[in-house]
Amino acid sequence: MYGMYCSTILGFSHNPATVFFNKSIPYASKTSTTKNGSFRAKPNDENDPLLQAAINAASLRLQETLQPEPLFHDPYAGCFISPQFRFDDKKQRSSSLHYLLTTKFIDDKLVGFVNQTDGLKQVVLLTDGMDTRPYRLRWPTLTRIFDISPDRIFKEATEKLQGNGAKLPKGCLLRHIPLESSNIQQTLSADGFNGNRSSIWAIQGLPVMTLSSFEEILITVSGLATKGCSFLGVLPAQVVETNIGDEYKRKDGKTVLE
């Protein structure tokens, strides 16, 4: 049931932070690959929420892509799905509509931002490691994309993507920032992120288990984002169900971080 995907969609342009509550996915640990490179859980990791969440999300994108009139098109989602994977029926797609709409929303915001930005465009994706946006969205020239995600998932996903012909748009650059990095802010800067230029940050699928983890993300963003930067995306239910409500104040139907 999609009820397990409870979470939050949020968005803001630097100060203040405007947060919109919605729904998402749970996360956690180890992965392995089959001989043909397909993702699967190890025998003792069949209930690994991080791996399963990433595969489930990819399967939802694939199912949507195969619809007669899809909300978005992800030609690479299928490379993460085992031939033995069993798709759910139309009822499942209906219950997954929130994820699909959120994905479309984030896609549109990202593309809209970079197309309205002159010169260097900076996009930071906080993901589960299987995000195909760097390859499937139409990024203009001079777009730098930074993917913050679990290292092992990203590396295996990249191998599968490249094996299926995925390529970045001409003149664009992708850099991976391992979630395990001791100092993500420093690693971002070392990999070419320019804190003096505008940027857009989107979170969908990143393992955020606690309110303090989310606060660390906000600290990283605020330490690098300049005026005019945007932050949007989705948080897991376990974060929303903490005392996060005490950290925000309702204003005009929106939730504003003080």
Automatic annotation (TrEMBL):
Question: Which Gene3D superfamilies does the UniProt record give?
Answer: Vaccinia Virus protein VP39
List UniProt keywords, sorted A-Z. Answer: Methyltransferase, Transferase
Question: Which Gene Ontology molecular function entries are recorded, alphabetically?
Answer: methyltransferase activity
Q: Which GO terms describe its biological process?
A: methylation
Q: Which superkingdom heads the taxonomic lineage of this protein's source?
A: Eukaryota
Keyword Methyltransferase listed? The answer is: yes
Please identify the protein, giving its name as recorded: S-adenosyl-L-methionine-dependent methyltransferase
- From which organism does this entry originate? Cannabis sativa
UniProt lists the gene as LOC115699722
